[in-house]
Amino acid sequence: MPLSEKEELELLKKGSSPSFESLYHRYSGKLYNFVMKVSKGDSYIAEELVQRTFIKVWETKEYVNPDKSFISYLCTIAKNMLLNEYEHQTIQFIYEEYVKVRTVENDDSTEKELDKNLLEEYIDKLADKLPPKRREIFILSRKDGLSNKEIAQKLNITESTIETQLSKALSFMKSEIKAHYDNILAILIASMII
Q1: Which residues in the chain are classed under CATH 1.20.140?
Q2: What is the pLDDT of residues 47-67, one digit of tens each?
């Protein structure tokens, strides 16, 4: 007789690979369908997020709560990862579009460097508004290029804390960029005309 979800989760918490595999086979299809819905049918990102979500579950298995719905837990992790991905893409998109326009206007490498510096200055100003610990994590991740694992080891905190802090930092930046998008575009366009 197959084990219940709760029994599988209790075994997973103790590090059971067979239970992990069983849960993966039981829920990966449902999670894939969920990510397909929230990502508007992006099968590439859906496949990747299913894998990344289950890797995260395995890495943090001791925090799994057998009394709560596992599929809800999976969906929350996947949704947060997707939001992080979209936030990162938003910042990157703004920068790339800006550079693209400037490159068409003028192919001077000194000016491109100035453009890059302008955007970096803006992101630095946003980072300065973050709470100190979150700012430190953001800088270690985005500027120093450290992985979540490296940051966690360096600061002696969990990877899930790093992910939460980065998610909050990027969420703040995205809302700031959205709120001031017209102003940012006006500044960028003005600097192109000058």
Answers
A1: 82-193
A2: 988 999 999 999 989 988 999
d(CA 41, CA 130): 34
- Which CATH code of 3.30.70, 1.20.140, 1.25.40, 1.10.10 fits the domain covering 82-193? 1.20.140
Asked if 64 contacts 9 with a C-beta cutoff of 8 angstroms, the reply is yes
Q: Are the C-beta atoms of 137 and 150 separated by less than 8 Å?
A: no
Are 46 and 35 in contact, with CB atoms under 8 Å apart? yes
Q: What's the pLDDT band for 181 if we cut at 50, 70, 90?
A: low
Measured CA to CA in angstroms, residue 157 lies from 39, 80, 137, 165, 177 at distances of: 31, 19, 11, 11, 29
pTM for this structure? 0.49
Concatenated DSSP letters of the chain:
-PPPHHHHHHHHHTT-HHHHHHHHHHHHHHHHHHHHHHTTS-HHHHHHHHHHHHHHHHHTGGG--TTS-HHHHHHHHHHHHHHHHHHHHHHHHHHHHHHHHHHHH---HHHHHHHHHHHHHHHHHHHHTS-HHHHHHHIIIIIS---HHHHHHHHT--HHHHHHHHHHHHHHHHHHHHHTHHHHHHHHHHHHH-
